[in-house]
Amino acid sequence: MTATLVRPGGAATRVATRSLAFKEARLLLGMSTLWIGAVLAVALCTAWGWTTEPRWDVFTANSGMASLVLAGFLVLIGHLAASRDHRHGATESARTLPSPARRRTVGLLALVPTAGLVAVLVVGVELVLLLPSWPAGAFDPWLMAVAVVSPMIGAAVGVAVGRWLPSTAAGPLTLFGLAAVLAILPVLGSSADALAWLLFPVVVDENVAPTMPRPTGAHLVYLVALLLVVIAGALLRHWRILASAVLAVALVVAVVAVERQQDERLPAGPEAAQPYLDESVQHCEQRNRVTYCALHGYGRWVPLWEKAVDPVVSALPVGVTDVPIVRQGAGPATSVVVDQHWGRHGSWARTSRTDLTTQYVRVLLGMPDQLAGRPGPGSLPERNRAVLPGGSLELSTGPRCSGAGQLRTVIALWLLGQSGEDGRALLNDPKNLHFGRVDVGEAEIEAAKRLLDVPRDRVTALVADNWGAVRSAAPVGDLLAPFGVTNLPAADQEAACP
User: Are 158 and 171 in contact (CB under 8 A)?
Assistant: First the structure.
């Protein structure tokens, strides 16, 4: 047997450290606790986004919040790995190992990139589970990276606490303290641009418009600097000068990144978002007789809107070409405006389709809206704006009015009955009958049901012959007598819709 003496340091030290790092990474990947956390993160992200069509800003927020759960698992795992030398009386045994404590600490830091790789896998699975849907809007790589960096910070925190406080209780107490801090931050911040929200690891506020600039790059820099602070805190146990310098620089970078976020944020409110919602930033295409204009990245939602609008347009006379444009974001009052929310499954998808159908019928027939701006003297035509993700609503233009006895009310209900597999079911549910601020009576509903019982081409011919009356507040009179609809009581002149 031949013994070879190797001088400590140099290549031998690097080989030993690399071997320890690979061993720690393999141990981490073999832990069932890690994969339970990964599965839980995937399940939470999928559940949070199940009811609506995916959007990049919402997906990255859900994925980021789910990654915090995975980070919590990694805090405990990292602490257990870093404190194993001090459990079950193993301190003396660890001192006899040929690998010194500082080398073991460096090897333990392999948990940080390994956690990042697991986080990338988790995000990939979350995206695959969205199929056949795919996120709409503008893809922001900086927000996507947040879901990867957060678990890395969790692993680094676990290692740092384990090297400084190896007692078994330190890990759970650290996790509890971090969870309490994260829970308090949103309470301290009154708005999305407050300092407390900027310190929160995940950007959870929805993007008002896909092309509206947001300081997401600065937020990622802040998280990476925070990761370096934690790593330097772990190495401070062994290298005081170097680790202190890295920690100080990382803290300065983190502070600058937070200030940059404050400086780059645009003023809140609909006025600041208006340039990013106007017709100039919408991409339009025509299907059948309708033009659909979507914001950047939302073109894949056009078929969803078409399913709600096409049954109405198909029931109109062929000669009717002046149909409303469907716009996403903002547009004139003569267009139908949709927002950045759409139901994805079951009743949520049906509700979105029904809402767009009723809104389209209202604009098509000139029925007064409940949410529209009041034009001033000599001003441009009224403009509509969709409900912003932040929740801004415009005031109603006036009190509710009655559509009793009006021809357009009956035709509006008949057009609504054309959508869906069972149009009568829509007419039987009062919550579907929200044509702006128009109140609908039982007599008009029964008249529309009678029209549904006759061949559609007969009603379409009637609509073609009386298109002007259909788009006005004209009474029914005896126009619907051939279909058995007579004597529809009209509303009082003061209460009738204009």
Answer: yes
pLDDT tens for 211-232 read 888 899 999 999 999 999 999 9
Q: Is 354 exposed, middle or buried (0-12, 13-18, 19+ CB in 10 A)?
A: buried
Q: Tell which residue, 46, 87, 92, 51, has the closest CA to residue 69.
A: 46
Q: How far apart (Å, rounded) are the C-alpha atoms in residues 143 and 205?
A: 12
Cα-based angle 191, 193, 338 (whole degrees, multiple of 5): 75
**What is the radius of gyration, based on Cα positions, of the chain?**
31
CB 203 within 8 A of CB 219: yes
- With H, G, I as helix, E, B as strand and everything else as coil, classify residue 41: helix
Query: Which residues have a Cβ under 8 Å from the Cβ of 264 and sit 6 or more positions away?
Result: 213, 214, 215, 218
Mean pLDDT of 429-452: 87
Instruction: Identify whether the C-beta of residue 327 lies closer than 8 Å to the C-beta of residue 351.
Output: no
How far apart CA 292 and CA 328 sit, in angstroms, is 8
DSSP annotation of 290 reads E
Task: Name the helix (H) or strand (E) containing 438.
Answer: strand 438-439
